[in-house]
Automatic annotation (TrEMBL):
Keywords: ATP-binding, Nucleotide-binding, Transport. This is ABC transporter ATP-binding protein. GO terms for cellular component: plasma membrane. Residues 18-258 form the ABC transporter domain. GO terms for molecular function: ATP binding; ATP hydrolysis activity; L-isoleucine transmembrane transporter activity; L-phenylalanine transmembrane transporter activity; L-valine transmembrane transporter activity. Signal peptide: none annotated. GO terms for biological process: D-alanine transmembrane transport; L-alanine transport; L-isoleucine import across plasma membrane; L-valine import across plasma membrane. Gene3D superfamilies: P-loop containing nucleotide triphosphate hydrolases (3.40.50.300). It comes from the Bacteria. The keyword Cytoplasm does not apply.
């Protein structure tokens, strides 16, 4: 008998959260990714670092299905999702944030999180107003608290600071109890205070909820990650624990180098 979506989401078995084997991505004659092999355990928190143009965001796009890989395979909790469209990956518990926040600017914070919760639920096409005891609204209220925005829940998104918008996007990514999240530069443009708040939010996520974070701020990335993958020119350059990567002379030289956006 074929397993239901809920059964797949509640059962991880011994499969890794994410397995990439020989993943490559070509844009015409340009090789953006080449021979990417990566294994991430359930619940693991990993940082992917590298200078601009290293291929980090392209890697995320391949995992989420925004740009399917040209070569190789991607497995999510043991299931081959290489050819799946983005919405099928979302249904299986994969979430992602973007470098530029994608929000409903004319709605409130709570409404944004509620709509995100509706989008990953069975009743996502309903036009009925939520009741006071609506389970999705209760979930949205809880997620607003998780990202420390309860005092701003009725604020229109267009009136939020940039840092608050990044916090809101994290709350939306948490909708529907994801199993794994990809965070694409969540600290970009944040003040020192907002970055400390971001670290607290990420380190406070449930232990079973793994994630990969792309981040130029090494202080943020190395504080929230337990493992690090360093990329360069579309390839994996080096992997290790945060302390190993931070103190590696080759990594320091490469990370401080220039490049083009990626």
């Amino acid at each position: 008998m074929t397993a239901t979506i809920s059964e797949r989401l509640s059962s991880t078995g011994t499969a890794n959260a994410l397995e990439l084997r020989g993943v490559g991505k070509m844009f015409g004659a340009l090789s953006a990714l080449a021979d990417i092999d990566m294994t991430v355990r359930p619940g693991e928190r990993r940082a992917v670092l590298g200078s601009n143009g290293a291929g980090k965001t392209t890697l995320f796009n391949c995992v989420t299905g925004d740009f399917p890989p040209t070569t190789g395979s991607i497995r999510f909790f043991g299931e081959d999702i290489t050819a799946f469209p983005p919405h099928e990956r979302i249904r299986r518990g994969l979430r992602r944030t973007y470098q530029i926040s994608l929000l409903f600017s004319g709605l409130s914070v709570l409404d944004n999180v509620y709509l995100a919760s509706c989008g990953v639920s069975r009743g996502r096409f309903s036009f009925r107003r939520p009741r006071r005891d609506d389970a999705l609204m209760a979930s949205a209220e809880n997620l607003v608290r998780v990202v420390h925005m309860e005092d701003a829940k009725d604020t229109i998104v267009a009136n939020l600071s940039y840092g608050q918008q990044r916090q809101l996007e994290i709350a939306m990514a948490l909708s529907g109890a994801p199993r794994f999240i990809l965070f694409d530069e969540p600290a970009a443009g944040l003040s020192p205070t907002e970055r400390r708040d971001l670290v607290e939010i990420l380190t406070g996520l449930p232990g079973h909820m793994g994630f990969i974070i792309i981040e130029h701020d090494m202080d943020v990335a190395l504080r929230v990650a337990e493992s690090v993958t360093m990329m360069h020119n579309g390839r994996i350059f080096k992997e290790g624990k945060p302390a190993e990567i931070e103190n590696d002379p080759e990594v320091q030289a490469l990370y401080l180098g220039g490049g083009e956006d990626g």
